[in-house]
Specification:
- The chain contains 13 helices and 13 strands.
- Helix 5 packs antiparallel against helix 12.
- Helices cover 40% and strands 21% of the residues.
- The strands form 2 sheets. Strands 12-11-7-10-9-8-13 form a 7-stranded mixed β-sheet. It has a 6-stranded parallel β-sheet with strand order 3-2-1-4-5-6, sandwiched between helices.
- The longest helix has 20 residues.
- The chain folds into 2 domains: 111 residues, NAD(P)-binding Rossmann-like Domain (Rossmann fold); 181 residues, Dihydrodipicolinate Reductase, domain 2 (2-Layer Sandwich).
- It is of the alpha/beta class.
- Helix 4 links the parallel strand 4 and strand 5.
- The chain is globular and about 55 Å long.
Length: 334
């Protein structure tokens, strides 16, 4: 199998390394607006260098991985689909929901699959949580708690163009809540604060947020996010039902210190960053994409899935700005 990669920044290079280690992938073709980055990746992974997205598609690739800047996602997704090449694209689909909806409308009904990169769907713990919910092991759910805490904030340039913490960070929690519970969010209420770097506040963003989501069956989901967690990268999910409660992320590398007497958990080295916390999930995600390319399975995270998480982020952003509950129906029609 021959895979093209567009964008060789941090995540694109990471994907190139992962793909080069998969037995089913025979060769890579890489391109980046910064030619030196693509050439370095080509040399490192034994890939073929191309000077443009068009050249990658012309090289006869079987699948296309889009890891370029967000602004480029819509055009690159559509170019791949137009060429009849299955596409894997890192989230988000586009910078705005309007653009994302336009991409969905342009490709829906077609036969070329598109997979959006929400890696937590491929993590063993989250997959086990979904299976437990589907099997009825927890009974009816009443409370969900999701947490994503970064060890340090991104640089100012990223913050200025990310669209805000709900769109670039919390959206992973929103997606996994939908995927694990099988329910849709109907209403949100969000709060946020700034206790850290001034450049985050200056960009109109918050460095720490909380959101209460009401699901369509009445379950309450509480989402907590921050750009600051001194002990490391903390991602967890709790599911509380009338028959049982389970948690994801309570491993020996949990970046949290217990103050209970005689408790030694967690004893391992704390997770430092998303790439080490989810290394296995990324490999499983890209393995799944090769199966999509081979026609062995449908997309495990469609454009429509990604846009649903995006609508929740839009609703939370509006709720924080206006200090009020916001329904999903309201933002969809805005």
């Amino acid at each position: 199998m021959r895979i093209g990669i567009l964008g060789l920044g941090r995540i694109g290079t990471f994907h190139a390394e992962t793909l080069s280690g998969l037995d089913v992938v025979e060769s890579l073709v890489v391109a980046d607006p910064f030619a030196d980055a693509a050439k370095a990746a080509a040399e490192r992974f034994g890939a073929e260098f191309a000077d443009s997205p068009e050249a990658v598609l012309a090289a006869g690739v079987d699948g296309l991985v889009v890891a370029a800047a967000t602004d480029a996602h819509p055009a690159l997704i559509l170019a791949g689909v137009a060429a009849g090449v299955p596409v894997f694209c890192e989230k988000p689909v586009a910078r705005t929901m309007r653009e994302g909806v336009a991409v969905l409308k342009a490709v829906e009904g077609g036969e070329v699959p598109v997979q959006i990169g929400y890696n937590r769907r491929f993590d063993a713990g989250f997959a086990a949580a979904r299976a437990a919910v589907r099997a009825g092991e927890l009974g009816r759910l009443h409370t969900v708690r999701a947490t994503t805490l970064d060890p340090a904030p991104p640089p100012p340039a990223y913050i200025a163009s990310s669209g805000g913490i709900f769109r670039d960070c919390s959206v992973h929690d929103f997606d996994i809540i939908r995927w694990v519970t099988g329910r849709e969010v109907t209403e949100v209420y969000a709060a946020g604060g700034n206790r850290g770097a001034e450049y985050i506040k200056d960009a109109g963003d918050s460095d720490t947020t909380g959101a209460v989501l009401t699901l369509d069956d009445g379950t309450i989901a509480v989402v907590s996010n921050s750009r600051y967690n001194a002990r490391g990268y903390d991602v967890r999910l709790e599911l509380h039902g009338f028959q049982d409660s389970v948690a994801v992320g309570l491993d020996e590398q949990l970046p949290l210190r217990s103050l209970e007497p005689s408790v030694t958990f967690p004893a391992g080295t704390a997770h430092a960053f998303f790439m080490d916390r989810f290394a296995d999930a990324y490999r499983a995600e890209l393995t799944a994409f090769t199966e999509v390319v081979a026609g062995a399975r449908p997309s495990p995270c469609t454009l429509a899935d990604a846009l649903e998480a995006g609508w929740i982020a839009e609703a939370c952003t509006l709720s924080l700005r206006e200090h009020r509950p916001v329904t999903l129906a309201e933002v969809r029609t805005a």
